[in-house]
Amino acid sequence: GAVVSQHPSWVICKSGTSVKIECRSLDFQATTMFWYRQFPKQSLMLMATSNEGSKATYEQGVEKDKFLINHASLTLSTLTVTSAHPEDSSFYICSAKLAGSSYNEQFFGPGTRLTVL
Amino acid sequence: AQSVTQLDSHVSVSEGTPVLLRCNYSSSYSPSLFWYVQHPNKGLQLLLKYTSAATLVKGINGFEAEFKKSETSFHLTKPSAHMSDAAEYFCVVSDPYSSASKIIFGSGTRLSIRP
């Protein structure tokens, strides 16, 4: 149980285009989802916290107009990288917190490798 | 404020020998602590978690960790390393009473296994 999927697993796009990444909790409801960014050989950096039905909360230094997050249902959150540039190339990982969980355990998706040319 | 420190950025051991990955935490409250493993270009897999029950926690693949409040440590161990254990390991701390539900990642420890 507690499986999180991400789609696509990898994407290559041209500079200036927008890319949408989907994060789904397959067998549980997630009122809260998180988006992380990971650069090579580094730890995960929290970008934003996404709550179903409300606006996402962005971490300091993350441009909310560039990284659009939508959490329209209890099983789906999307991250759209708008007007992507090569410096946005990274590994993006989402996670989901089980609704009602007391321990803040997060279940992670397999990640999406974004390469911007 | 919470924080977590992984004391070694890289650990290399021979196959069949014990593994020790060190983690120290700082928390104002009784924390929840987790160890995750990440294989190259993959997502994170939970190895084990401490949530204020037994201080010695057993996880998957033969890993275990001991919560030591007096030392503010949560070191990960395995009696005998296997080649498939080569990966990046993250120690994570969480305040279970935080409404933000955030978790804090350590910087990671890369585990290499020598044949």
Provide structural commentary.
The complex is a heterodimer of chains A (117) and B (115). Chain A starts with a strand and ends with a strand. The mean pLDDT of chain A is 91. Chain A is built from no helices and eleven strands. By secondary structure, chain A is mainly beta. Chain B has strands spanning 3-6, 10-14, 19-21, 23-26, 32-38, 44-50, 56-58, 64-68, 73-78, 87-94, 103-105, 109-114. In chain B, strands 2, 5, 6, 10, 11 and 12 form a six-stranded mixed beta sheet that branches. In chain B, strands 3-9-8-7 form a four-stranded antiparallel beta sheet, with no helix packed on it. The termini of chain B are far apart. The mean pLDDT of chain B is 91. Chains A and B meet through strand 5, strand 9 and strand 10 of A and strand 5 and strand 6 of B.
In short:
The complex is a heterodimer of chains A (117) and B (115). With 117 residues, chain A is mostly beta strands.
List keywords for this structure.
heterodimer, A: 117 residues, mainly beta, seven-stranded mixed sheet, four-stranded antiparallel sheet, 52% strand, B: 115 residues, six-stranded mixed sheet, 0% helix, globular
Describe the secondary structure blueprint for this structure.
The complex is a heterodimer of chains A (117) and B (115).
Chain A: E1 4-7, E2 10-13, E3 19-25, E4 32-38, E5 44-51, E6 57-58, E7 67-73, E8 76-81, E9 90-97, E10 106-108, E11 112-116
Parallel strand pairs in A: 2-11
Antiparallel strand pairs in A: 1-3, 3-8, 4-5, 4-9, 5-6, 7-8, 9-10, 9-11
Chain B: E1 3-6, E2 10-14, E3 19-21, E4 23-26, E5 32-38, E6 44-50, E7 56-58, E8 64-68, E9 73-78, E10 87-94, E11 103-105, E12 109-114
Parallel strand pairs in B: 2-12
Antiparallel strand pairs in B: 1-4, 3-9, 5-6, 5-10, 7-8, 8-9, 10-11, 10-12
